[in-house]
Structures are given as C-alpha cells and as structure tokens.
Amino acid sequence: MVHRRGAGGGDPCRMPTEQRRATARSGAWVSLPRPLTAPLVEQRVAYSDRGAPKSCQKSRSTCGKALPPQAAEVIRVLPNNKLSSFLSPQLLPLLASGGLRRRPQVAYSTKEESTARPVGRYPVPNKKDMPYDIVELMEEVEMKTGFLPNVFKAMSHRPAEFRAFFAYYNAIMNKDTGRLSKADKELIIVATSAVNRCPYCVVAHGALHRIYSKQPALADQVIVNWKLADLSDRDLAMLEFALAVCRADNITEEHFQKLERHGFDREDAWDIGMISAFFAMSNRIAHYIDLRPNKEFYMMGRTPGGEMEEEA
C-alpha cells in the first residue's frame, strides 16, 4: 500500500486528480508495510512526472512480482518531480526480479581501488554514480572476459560520449557483412595503433588478434615492422590501405584497385578505412588521458590459459 503523509492517506488511484497531482509535486508518497511491487513503481513515476492516471490503470492489469525489501532504499520518492529521472523504465523489471541485489560487484571505482594505479588522468566514477545502462554494459563485458578493460572505466567519465563511442565501435567491429574477419579488423587496429604510438590499443587489440587468429606471434611482428611480418599478399594490401588512411596519405584510385585485386570490394575498403579512422580517434583519446592497458591483456592468447570468451 502507498500512503500519503498527513491526514487522509488512502489509495492514490481513488484520489481526485488535482489532489493526486499536488501530492506528487510535494514528493509526499512514502512506502509502507507490504512489499513494493513494480506496478506501484510505475504509478509513482506517472504521478511524479505527469500526474496522469493512465499508467496507474495499466499497472493494475500487469501486476509484477514483489520487489525485495532492499529496493525500498533505492525506490524512494524525491521532491521536485525528480523521480522519473531517478528510475529509468529499464530498471523496473530488474528491480521487480530482485536482480539488482544479485548482480556482481564489478568494475567502476571502489574504496578498494583507491590505492590502485590509476587507469588514466581522469577519475573513474563510483558505481553508484553511474547511469544504469552503463553499469549493465560493464557487468556484461566483465562477465564475458573475466575483467573489465580500462577503456570502459575511462570513458564512463563522460556517459553520453561513452554511449556514442561504444555504439559506433559496435557498428564497425561487430557487423555481420563484408569480407573482413574479426582477426582482420584487430590486425588493422594493431598496425595503425603502432603507427600512432598508442600503447593501450596495441596491447589490447594485439591480445584480441591473438585470440581470433590463433597466431600468437603475428601481432607482435606487425607492431615491430608490418612489412616484414608473416602476412599474405591479401593482408599486406589490407594493411597498406589502412595505414595510408592512418597517415592521411593522398588516397588514390590505385589504392582501391589494389584491394580489389586481392578480393576486396568498395564496401570492404570503406570498412578498412573506417576502422583506421575510428581508431585514430581512439588512439588520440587514449594518448591524452594516459590510458593504461590492463595487465590481463599481455598474456591473453599466448598460452592455453590466456584465452577469453570469443564474443567478448
């Protein structure tokens, strides 16, 4: 049951509209005895945001599971109509299942990390201060890889930029079309990041290349001198194009024709160039924020135990 401070109390769904709106504006809804349910959370969001009864009626027909007692600490009503920003719609099902309690305590900045070597020049927000969608993504990554790459921690300093950065990363690195394999993409990143002198990207994506290619030495060869590495003519043509983009060389029709002679088309050339361009930006970001590679990257793919889940 949700009650109102002061005289009257009662079911908010039966209160006159103006009284309900006034109560919501004052932030006076409080949780009392029985376990809070997801529909009541929806009702509070509706009242705090608009004072509209529609969400309340819908909630009664789609009653969810009771929330755990700990949710009372999270689901508190804030004054000045702040509740709708405090609880995102994506959070409601998780709270209803008690999932917020069960999720592992990972990533982010914690008291235990306060004496650890920093991941970069900028502070890493504490978990409790991060937007939920970013926390959720970090936990998913850590569950797959066994650790959280420092780029996620560093970029969480700017949530909007975090979302944009990883959305574009996903678009170019995880697309299902084109002739570039995952190993090809990682090799492009290794080669261009070496030219841009980016330790983080060289170490992290060198590790990913070892895992995808099953060739523990090739990335290291490319880092030292890509022209002397054990590469096929196809891979040499791919890296030549990528490095021309990386160095801002004059791109001519001959570059495209050389790719085509080795089985790539114009769309593949776009992918190669876009990966080079995106990671040139990433290299510069890592450079000025002094982003440090995770120690876990160094041995990944070199030994039988240095593997991670391939889809990470």
Task: Give me the CATH architecture of the largest domain, please.
Answer: Up-down Bundle
Spans of at least 5 consecutive residues whose pLDDT stays below 50 are 1-9, 23-115
How many individual domains? 2
For the largest beta-sheet, the strand count, sense and barrel status come to:
2 strands, antiparallel
Average pLDDT over all residues: 75
Q: Say what the CATH topology of the largest domain is.
A: AhpD-like
Q: How does the helix and strand content classify structurally?
A: mainly alpha
Under CATH, the homologous superfamily of the largest domain reads: AhpD-like
Strand order of the largest sheet: 1-2
Total beta-strand segments: 2
Query: What is the molecular shape?
Result: globular
Task: Give the terminus-to-terminus CA distance.
Answer: 44 Å
- Quick one: CATH class of the largest domain? Mainly Alpha
GO molecular function: peroxiredoxin activity
Key structural traits:
AhpD_core; Uncharacterised_peroxidase-rel; AhpD-like; single chain; two-stranded antiparallel ribbon; peroxiredoxin activity; mainly alpha; CMD-like; 2 domains; 312 residues
Describe this structure as you would to a colleague.
By secondary structure, the protein is mainly alpha-helical. It folds into 2 domains: 2-102, no CATH class; 104-312, AhpD-like (Up-down Bundle), CATH 1.20.1290. Helices cover 53% and strands 2% of the residues. The protein contains 16 helices and 2 strands. The chain has helices at residues 17-26, 38-49, 54-61, 71-74, 83-86, 91-96, 99-102, 132-145, 150-155, 159-173, 182-195, 199-213, 218-225, 233-246, 253-261, 266-288; strands at 2-4, 29-31. A two-stranded antiparallel sheet has the order 1-2. It is globular and about 55 Å long. The two termini are 44 Å apart.
